[in-house]
Amino acid sequence: MTSVQRFARFVAGSIRSALTGPVQYWAWIGFLLLLIASGVLAYLDQLTVGLAMTAMRDQVSWGFYIGNFTFMVGVAAAAVILVIPAYVYHWKPIREIAIFGELLAVSSIVICILLVMVDIGRPERFWHMMPLIGHLNFPRSLLAWDMMVLNLYLLLNLVVVVHILYRTWCGRAYSKAFVVPLVLFSIPAAIGIHTVTAFLYNGLSARPYWNASILAPQFLASAFSSGPAILLVVLQVLRRFTRFEIRDEALWKIGELMAYAVFLNLFLHGAEAFKEYYSGTEHLLYTRYWFQGLDGHRTLVPYAWAAVSLNLLALFLLIMPATRRNVITLNIGCLATYAGCYIEKGMGLIIPGFTPSTLGEIYEYSPTWIEVRVAAGAFAVGFLVFTALLRVAVPILLGESRLEPAQQPVPAVPTPVLAAPAPQVQL
Amino acid sequence: MENDPPKATRREFATCAAAAAAGFLMTACGPRRLHEVPRKQLQQMVRDMEREYSQKYGEQVTVSDAGPMADVLFAYALDISRCIGCRRCVYACVEENNQSRDPQVQWIRVLQMDKEHGIDFEHADPYYQPDQVPEDGHFYVPVACQHCRNAPCTKVCPTGATWTEKDGIVVIDYDWCIGCRCCMAACPYGARQFNWRQPSIPEGELNPSMHYLGNRPRPRGVVEKCTFCIQRVRAGRYPACVEVCPVGARKFGNLLDPDSEIRYIIDHKRVMVLKKELNTMPKFFYFYGT
Lengths: 427, 290
Description:
The structure holds two protein chains of two kinds.
Chain A: H1 3-18, H2 23-49, H3 64-77, H4 79-88, H5 92-95, H6 98-119, H7 142-169, H8 176-202, H9 215-241, H10 248-279, H11 284-291, H12 301-319, H13 321-325, H14 327-345, H15 347-354, H16 369-397
Helix pairs in contact in A: 1-16, 2-16, 3-6, 3-8, 3-9, 3-15, 4-6, 4-8, 6-7, 6-16, 7-8, 8-9, 9-10, 9-14, 10-12, 11-15, 12-14, 14-15
Chain B: H1 10-29, H2 39-57, E1 62-64, E2 74-79, H3 88-96, E3 109-114, E4 138-143, H4 152-156, E5 162-164, E6 170-172, H5 182-186, E7 193-194, E8 209-211, E9 223-224, H6 230-233, H7 240-244, E10 250-254, H8 261-268, E11 270-272, E12 284-288
Parallel strand pairs in B: 1-8, 2-12
Antiparallel strand pairs in B: 2-10, 3-4, 5-6, 7-9, 11-12
């Protein structure tokens, strides 16, 4: 059997395993498909009428979509937090699950790209941004940079993941010479995608709320808080529903790393708030709009304080060893981190950046149902991709899905991951 | 038989086919960005536009492809001490530049300011609606595109759909803009408007005298803004807002001409630009004439 044939069998097998599953699996898929359908219908409305279906206007020209995009870039970047110790320090408990971080990164980037696509006014002209056939304003435009690094990061993670899964499926060890350099490169790439996304806002002198050099470090801190928060929950689900062995220490370690990130995030926010309030220049307006409201415009104020409280709660729960090791408080900590970062980085970053507008006007933005449905649809696509990828990856990593022994290539090196015998997956 | 031209080998055939395909692609996909189309292709495109708009609006439309004139750098000056906030410029601009009437798109925004606070956007009101202007205790600052020499908007555009022409006018290619609105986030003057829904101009209200980088009709989902009335100024006329201003607060001219009115104002009056600290270097000056 040639390697092309073997790879074709791998792809076919993968598709087959993504399309088979127990009732709960299909119920989840059905739920996601419903969300996607609702998103597509809403998007069709938006396409017919225009972006007027959203609450965005000239004063607040980016909103829910770009807020969610920013947050998801952070989630994608956070895969690195697992990759660093796993591959660089050969830290065993995390190494086994690093691949899930990469799968999460792939799915998050899918969501990011969808969210940008639904935000632009002329999606059919998207090719104008492509080099050669269009015109990419590189290196001047930061959005051009962002598209480049996001796609590169997507490709990088896909290649690593496919390589590891394929080799494992063949019963061989992954090629160190191939994977390690790519993984090492993915570390600066992950930091890069989020830094570039931060610079997208950071470079705009017209928006004092974003034009602070603390923005990029703070983006990274909140990414390294929220990304692992999702992953921790996913890992527990995996442990519960499959035979995948994930040790408690691995979860606790991730929780501990998260605690540092949450602290750093809060610290950087505090530093920025101090500067704004103590110096009290005209730039204070935007921060005041977020935390206190302006002239009775207080839509965002509850969100601001909810974000602060959630992050403080998360810090407390994750930094105390006792609560970190308790399943319930650990999960509350994760949810609090996720929700806190989501509010503060999504709406909390974008909307105050535009309010008041550059000419001093206050337009209170709050997303329409169309926006919520479209964004939920984009998220559902990402979750669908993530679910399918897990459905393929887990049996392979568990050794349940393998190339038939007769066809195995000769040097069957023991797999570096988990090579357990293959009973049924208990979903 | 020996004199027959040698038959093409498979490799030669493949090479030729590939070259032909590449040639076709280059022509088809060719430079379509208005910024870089060669003169000849531009003339063809402009004629296509004329045909399209004439058909669509049922009247004879002319689309100018006039390029920048040599030794001309356009600049604008607005006398804050004269402006009475009547908003005639706003509506003259709408009519001249074929802005959408429903939904309303306006390239000029007149801000009412308190004399108490001076020029302070925090205390600016664009929605003032008294029976008569000017009102006591207030003055007026109309704001449109400042045509910055160091324009933040052109820098951020991912597709290069907006740029500064040689005569200093910042323009947009409405057929190349993807509607990402980075430029709107980057503009410190709120000068750029987005077509959130299909723009509409009632029958008979179209200005048929157009320029390919200016007042031709815009589609939904792209950004637009003031072009200094490129269709007028490149034909030696004043912008519509300058002509309509009842108090003569608006001045326009060539910055490179030492005898121009604009140069006189800069040399003799108290001149300022908005948000000077951002170093955008606007070519739109505000001054106190009296």
